[in-house]
Specification:
single chain; about 260 residues; alpha+beta; 13-stranded mixed beta sheet; three-stranded mixed beta sheet; 7 helices; about 40% strand
Length: about 260
Amino acid sequence: MPSNQQHAITRRRAGFFVLIILCSGTFLSACKQGKKPVLGGFQEAGVQYTTYEGAIGERTKVTLPGGLSVILNSHSRLLVPPDFSANHTLLLDGEAYFDTTAFPLTIKTNILVMTAKTPAAFKIRCFEAQQGATAYVLKGEVEVKKSYHSKTDTLPELLAKGNMVLANKEIDLMEKETYHPADMETWLQDKLVFHDEPFMNAVRKLEEWYSTEIYVDGDPSHAGGVNGEFQGMSLKRVLEKMKETAKFSFDVKKNKVMIEF
């Protein structure tokens, strides 16, 4: 029977390019382990931030002053300064979707800074414990630039609907690309759909969808294809549905999920 380590290696090799470019590193929070302040280099001295956190395997909806709507994904933290109504600047460690119509908005992460000077909707994914980041614009125009000192790609990019940015701090990369806005619409509907998806492919999709690392112990080759439509469900609820046919057990821990066959 293949070991947990063998399955993890297989899974990561299958998504090697994506992991290097988009989300290098682990989902486990190094800053929590070291007890360092979230985005300590970006916090203003003496300022007491209000922190919103996304629970494991779930999305959290937050409404901030001025009517700003935020969808905060799993393992993510949003830091709001007391003068947010005046300076409209937030700090993000993780993944969140922002829809702003009332005022300009700036989101700072450890790799990218996004600024919307007009009504806009966009999603950014940037975990402090990782070297990679992505950003997508669904409507309006958003300026994006690196938040760290760089010798290359120092000019900001202007993103409109259908534009995205791939960034990796380790190799000092920031590239403007395109994506299908329909994919973002599906994400906003919180609707996962599987059509005879190989089990490990489904696991990768769940990891991406919920920003949660999933470990598989045992042999999933007999699990068969994953089918079904899961809308507005937590990761725990999706796994409960999947195990009815795939016949596995799982345990949702603080920072990860364990699946056992």
